[in-house]
Specification:
5-stranded mixed beta sheet; EC 3.1.4.11; Immunoglobulin-like; 19 strands; 32% helix; hydrolase; TIM Barrel; alpha/beta; phosphatidylinositol-4,5-bisphosphate phospholipase C activity; PLC-like_Pdiesterase_TIM-brl; 6-stranded mixed beta sheet
């Protein structure tokens, strides 16, 4: 009872609290240094700070700076409870410059001072195999892998987020609503969606976030007749967007730059059948086991029964093949084959044989289980294979709830397509989102050179034996702001302001992984931590910086925002770091003011 009364008294006395703590010493010293010890930082002094301290290469003239600062002042004024004429605010800045508080408010706005470059800056002229690609798994599912609905909405959302690889599972359909072809997770209770609806949405949203190519990986369970129908449908809907290679014997993949605004199809090429009376069950074409097949022993009895029923209905669909003209079938297969730009390869035999490099480049698919096993016994072969070819890794069948595995199991071995359930929100998906904030968020991230090139003496990179420490990352967490605007007054605690702390960690090769956290700042919406952490790094090129803020409670601490940043892309100096909710949606106001500094060791 006594604790309850104290909390109520605290709530009543601090309900209107807007007090902000004293600015961190580093910020005051930087302001004083560039302002020449004065109380106001003039325009020319601010320009020198931006260039010398922040390393801003895109701000070279006073005109460049004026546009940014004037926009900031007008924006801040529009958010203020006491409105002032925008013209008057700009006049004050031009004559007097910025005060210390103006200076700090300017730094904490991520619109002007974010932690990453917002433009594409990697070399985009290398073969596709040289890039990590933002990849979806069963992109049409709205929820779990067994009973959820199939829809084009998850595809649209993924494309809006910058996902570049979309997966569709194609099955024959007798329904008049499905154009003869449906998209569905086969042998489950998931509902279908017409393939034409998915293709039209892909066309409409493919380049909403990025101009770089969208790749469709097809899990093909179609008959030759339906393959012909799909080929005509894709050609009609996509038109000139659809990339059709001049040859089916590619010895090197084209570059993302050369494929801008193009849609690419990737699947196992079909065989051209010689006998029209041989019944072909609509299983995935070729000998590569499908993801649906991998579900077999992992599904409950009710779904196993459904599998048998599905096979029976599939046999009924063969009626069209038996009565169709053989030449027509072969012509349809050839047209379908012509659309396939990235060929899926065989996955039979030993892992050594599967990863054997060939003259022609191809794509190979493995489950996360198979990849984990291969990484332990054939790590070097994986990296050599992914230097020229494309490897796709998909979640194991047990992930019925659409959860995801840790993506580093793929990235450390050069895997380009780490296929994720985009509806499976959690820590793994946050790492994926963090990786693809790199390179302007275009969905393609150039792999480090050590994953692309063979080292001297024909050696390749070994994640288990990384080089000695070569860099130190210094991360300083100064302060946070914006929770009071984005959360209700009682969201974290009914009777007092929150007790925030920040967790900072590195995720990468095992030798680089480390965690730290700040002290808890009690009873404040405006925490100032002013704490620095050092991380010694061996492979910074593959490291991600995870940041999460929590509110300390007696039970489970409350979530208060998170982000994940590619370490190699961090902009040095004082930076405003916007935070996101659990699903990766950016908060309107919540930001941290931090400093990043990367030092190279001799």
């Amino acid at each position: 009872m006594e604790t309850y009364i104290i909390k109520v008294l605290n709530f009543l006395t601090k309900k209107g609290e807007v007090y902000k703590a004293e600015p961190p010493l580093d910020l005051k010293e930087a302001f004083s240094k560039f302002a020449g010890g004065e109380n106001q930082m003039k325009k020319d002094q601010l320009l020198r700070f931006m260039v010398e301290h922040q390393g801003e290469n895109n701000i070279s003239t006073m005109e460049d700076l004026d546009k940014i600062v004037e926009k900031f002042l007008q924006l801040r004024n529009s958010c203020s409870s006491t409105k002032t004429s925008s013209t008057r605010i700009v006049d004050v800045y031009r004559k007097q410059g910025l005060s210390l508080n103006d200076f700090i408010d300017f730094l904490i706005l991520d619109d002007f001072n974010g932690p990453l470059k917002d433009k594409v800056h990697h070399d985009m002229n290398a073969p596709l195999s040289h890039y990590f690609m933002y990849t979806g798994h069963n992109s049409y599912l709205t929820g779990n892998q067994l009973t959820s609905e199939s829809s084009d909405e998850p595809i649209i959302e993924a494309l809006k987020q910058g996902v570049r690889v979309i997966e569709l599972d194609l099955w024959p359909s007798k329904s008049s609503n499905n154009d003869g072809i449906k998209v569905v997770h086969g042998r489950t209770f998931t509902t279908p969606v017409p393939v034409s609806k998915c293709l039209q949405s892909i066309k409409d949203y493919a380049f909403h976030k990025s101009d770089y190519p969208v790749i469709l990986t097809l899990e093909d369970h179609l008959t030759p007749k339906h393959q012909d129908k799909f080929a005509k449908m894709a050609t009609e809907i996509f038109g000139e967007m659809l990339y059709c290679p001049e040859t089916d014997c590619l010895t090197e993949f084209p570059s993302p730059e050369s494929l801008k605004k193009r849609i690419i199809i990737s699947t196992k090429p079909p065989k051209e059948y010689q006998q029209s009376d041989s019944i072909r069950k609509p299983m995935p074409n070729g000998s590569e086991p499908s993801e649906e097949e991998s579900w077999g022993p992992e599904l409950p009895d009710s779904v196993a029964k459904l599998k048998t029923e599905d096979r029976n209905s599939s046999d009924e669909d063969q009626e069209d093949i038996n009565t169709s003209d053989n030449k027509s079938n072969q012509q349809g297969v050839r047209q379908y084959k012509h659309l396939i730009a990235i060929h899926g390869g065989k996955s039979k035999g030993s892992m050594k044989n599967r990863l054997k490099d060939d003259v022609k480049v191809r794509r190979l698919s493995l489950s996360e289980k198979k990849l984990k096993s291969a990484s332990e016994s054939h790590g070097a072969d994986l990296i050599r294979f992914t230097q020229r070819n494309i490897l796709r890794v998909f979640p194991k069948g047990e992930r019925v709830k659409s959860t995801n595995f840790r993506p580093y199991i793929g990235w450390l071995y050069g895997v380009q397509m780490v296929a994720f359930n985009m509806q499976g929100h959690g820590k793994s998906l946050r790492l994926m989102q963090g990786m693809f904030r790199a390179n302007g968020g275009c969905g393609y991230v150039k792999k480090p050179e050590f994953l692309i090139r063979t080292l001297p003496h024909e050696e390749v990179f070994d994640p288990k034996k990384p080089p000695s420490r070569k860099q130190i990352l210094k991360v300083k967490v100064y302060k946070g702001d914006g929770w009071r605007l984005d959360f209700s007054p009682t969201h974290f605690d009914r009777f007092s302001p929150p007790d925030f702390y920040t967790k900072v960690s590195i995720v990468g090769v095992p030798a680089d992984c480390a965690k730290n956290k700040t002290r808890v700042k009690t009873d404040t919406w405006y925490p100032v931590w002013d704490e620095e952490f050092e991380f010694k790094l061996r492979v910074p090129e593959l490291a991600l910086l995870r940041i999460e803020v929590k509110d300390k409670d007696k039970g489970k601490d409350d979530f208060a925002g998170q982000t994940c940043l590619p370490l190699s892309e961090l902009r040095h100096g004082f930076r405003s770091v916007p935070l996101y909710d659990r699903k990766g949606k950016k908060y309107k106001s919540v930001t941290l003011l931090m400093r990043f500094k990367l030092e190279t060791l001799n």
